[in-house]
Amino acid sequence: MENVERIIQPRPSSIVAALYTLRDLDTDVAILHGPPGCCFKHSRLLEEDGMRVVTTAMCDSDYVFGGHDLLVDVLKKVMSRFHPGRVGIVGTCASMIIGENFHRAVEEVGPGVPVIEVEIHAGYSDNTHGAIVTLEAAHAVGLIDEGELERQKRMLLLATELEKKSGAASRDYIEPSRGDLKYKAASRLLELMRQGKRGVSVLNAKKETAYMFADVNLAVCQAASAVGAPVPVTIANLDASVGLPRIRRYAATIMAQLKENGVQVDHITGGLDEYPLTGENAGRIITERYSSYDYVVLSGVPHAIPYEAIKGMEIFSITNGPRQVEPLKAIGHQHVMVEVDLHPKTLGVRGMVESEFGETLRSML
């Protein structure tokens, strides 16, 4: 067995990645085949986002005698109680280690709707494996075509590479941090604006997190206008023609809201599920057109933008990962802020929500 150094800090779960991917596929009900407490926090958050999550509530005796009858019973209850048009069944460590057969349960019930059978556990080092397995299962029942499956897999593999290169998986342990004080960074940004400095504002966000990260870019444009500074060039991964229908809706909604608030997006880099690739695209645009500008604001996944493209600017980065602060500082980002409560605030919403950095910046005008 290859001797690979293991990351000793907590890492995202493949099971959770599977659940979020089911949500992206507009699944009505997800059945977790495992113990009642498995993935409790994320299950509750996803319920706020419109997907019901139920559990077969496996207990210690089920680990010995099997949970087939439990799964059959819960699937029948789901069909009679909720009348879903699309169901997902997600494995857990408990059900996978004893070799539960999801398809046999589905055949026994005969639900008459697509059932996405996701055989997954949390023992994978890359949580993106859970998303890939879910997409493959969705393709198997005809919910996405081959082209979309391959595009999604490519993006997920690129995301994994990005995290290992410069993200939270780049070291075996990274000290979590809340980052720089937002009012100090906002004060410095306003100082640059009042000096007439030119800037670039980049949104490079992942899926629904853009509902909050886009507010950062909105606030930056509003601040520049309020102090009479040159309006920053706005670059965003808000292509509403790319991705699953839910992801496209996110992009279309945010684009409309930015337009309503007077923000012109000057360059579109791709879709909201393409952030590893769109970061490269944003870097290329900056290198070719705006390399002489003075500052850059990066919101979402800042480490996806190549440092070589922005190293001559003063960098303001906004992330939602406490373990992303130290790697960004090490690369050379001068100001790094964390939107700690982003995830619970962006689930179940239908439009942009105010960010802490945006709120801070506006309060100082």
From TrEMBL:
Domain Nitrogenase/oxidoreductase component: 18-136
Classification lineage: Archaea, Methanobacteriati, Methanobacteriota, Stenosarchaea group, Methanomicrobia
Protein name: Methanogenesis marker 13 metalloprotein
PANTHER family listed in its UniProt record: NI-SIROHYDROCHLORIN A,C-DIAMIDE REDUCTIVE CYCLASE COMPLEX, COMPONENT CFBD (PTHR42846)
NCBIfam families the record matches: methan_mark_13
GO MF terms, alphabetically ordered: oxidoreductase activity
InterPro entries, alphabetized: CfbD, Nase/OxRdtase_comp1, Ni-siroh_cyclase_CfbD
